[in-house]
Amino acid sequence: MEEGDLAVETRLLVGSSLEQSIEKVTQASTLLKKNYPEVEEVVGKIGASEIPTDPMPIEATDLTIILKPKKNGQVPSQERN
């Protein structure tokens, strides 16, 4: 089933700093783009108080993995192996 882009929630250990969160999000983004050619961009939102009933701590990050438009006949990376 094709559902488009992906959303992933990540967590670091409680007490991790903002710098550590940024470092790990950058590392994940680099690895995803390097190993999966269908990944166009990775965007991370670290911590959020936008929703008062569900605040996210600095240790929590929402990653949005934006995929390139699919070409006819393109096989996803995990099916190639």
Shape designation: flat
Low-confidence stretches: none
Which strands sit side by side, in order, in the main sheet?
Answer: 1-3-2
Query: Strand count, sense and closure of the main sheet?
Result: 3 strands, antiparallel
- Name the helix and strand elements from N-terminus to C-terminus, one letter apiece: EHEEH
How much β-strand is present in the residues?
Answer: 25-35%
Distance between the termini: 20 Å
Number of helical stretches of at least 4 residues: 2
What structural category do the secondary elements indicate?
A: alpha+beta
**How many strands in all?**
3
From the alpha-carbon coordinates, what is the Rg to the nearest angstrom? Answer: 15 Å
Residues in helices, as a percent range: 25-40%
Which whole number gives the mean pLDDT? 83
Any idea how many domains?
1
Explained architecture:
This protein is of the alpha+beta class. It has one domain (6-69). Helices cover 27% and strands 35% of the residues. It has two helices and three strands. It has helices spanning 18-35, 77-80; strands at 6-11, 39-48, 56-67. It has a three-stranded antiparallel beta sheet with strand order 1-3-2, covered by helices on one side. Strand 2 and strand 3 (56-67) form a beta hairpin. The protein is flat. The model has no long low-confidence stretch (mean pLDDT 83).
